[in-house]
Amino acid sequence: MRSIAFALPAAALMSAGAVDQVQAQTPQYVKALPVATAPLSMVPRTAYFLGLGGSFNSTNFTNQNIFAQGVSDIFLNGTQVAFGSAGGPADPSLNSKNGLSPTIQAGFFQHFTGTDWLWGAKVSYTYLHAGSTDSNVVVPQVGSFTSANSDTFTGNVVIRSYQVSLEHQLNFIPFIGHSFDRSMVYFGVGPALFQTRSKLNGVIGFAAINNTHVNITGTPSNFSSSPWMIGGAATIGGTYFLSPSWFLDCSYTFAMSESRTTSFSAPFASATDGYTDTGILSGNYSGRVVTQSVAISINKAF
Q1: Against a cut of 0.85, is the pTM above it?
Q2: Tell me: the pLDDT tens digits for 177-214?
Q3: 66, 73, 107, 101: which is closest to 87 by C-alpha?
Q4: Phi-psi region at 283: left, alpha or beta (left = phi > 0; alpha = psi -120 to 50)
Q5: For the chain, which terminal residue's Cβ has fewer other Cβ atoms within 10 angstroms, N or C?
Q6: Which residues, listed in sequence order, are joined to residue 145 by a DSSP beta bridge?
C-alpha cells in the first residue's frame, strides 16, 4: 500500500511533465491584429486631360496712343503754290470690359517618382469678344506751310470713334503642383497669345489757317487691323477629383500682352476756295491688353 501511495504522485508528476513537453513542441498560433492601410489617392499618377467650362473676365486696354499727321501739296489753277505738313499725338481713354466667356483647356500632368509633387502643362483658349470705344477723339496738330507767305498753323485730326476689342486669348502654361487624396493645387507661368481688333472710323484732318477752320483731308477715312500679339500669363489653381477619370478645375489667371504699334496711311484730296489739296494722311496707334480671369471647368482625365 505504501508503494502505491508513492507511485501515484510520481505518475502525476511524470504526466504533467509530458504534457508540458508536448505543449512546448506544438506550434503556437497568435491571431494577427488588423493593419491600418492608408487610402489610395484618387489623383492619377500620370494623366492627360481635356476640359470645357466658362470664365469671368476683366479686360483692360492700357497704354493707348494715337499719332496722326498730314502732308499735302496745295495747288491753284494747276500750279503748286504751297506745301504743308502737321502732326501730333493723343491718348484715347478706353474703359475696361467685364463679362463671361466660354473656355476650353487640354494638358497633362505627371508625379515625380515616389512623391506627391507633380509637374505638367496646359493650353487654354478663351473667346472673349470684349471691346471698348472712345468717341470723337481729337488729335492736336501743329504744322507749317511753305509758300509766298509761309507761316505756322494749328489744327486737329478728329476720329469719330476709336474701337479696340480683344477677340481671342491662348495661354500656354507649364506648372508644378502637389496632390492630395482627392485634389491637387498648382501654379504656372508661360507665354500667351492675344488677337485684338482695332478700328479708327471717320478720320478727318482740319487746319486753322488765317482764322479759318479748313477741312484738309476731305472725305473721312477708315482704318482697321487685327494683329496677334504675344505676352505672358501666370495661373494659380486647384482641382477636385470626382473620380480618377473626372475632376473639377478652378483657376485664376493674370495675363498681359506686348504693346503693339500699327501704322495706317491713306491718300486724300480736297478743294477749298479754288485751292486743291492732295496728300497723305498717316500715323500709327498702339496699346496693350491686360486680362484677369477666373475659370471653372469640368475635365476628363485619360
Answers
A1: no
A2: 999 999 999 999 999 999 999 999 999 999 887 777 88
A3: 66
A4: left
A5: N
A6: 84, 151
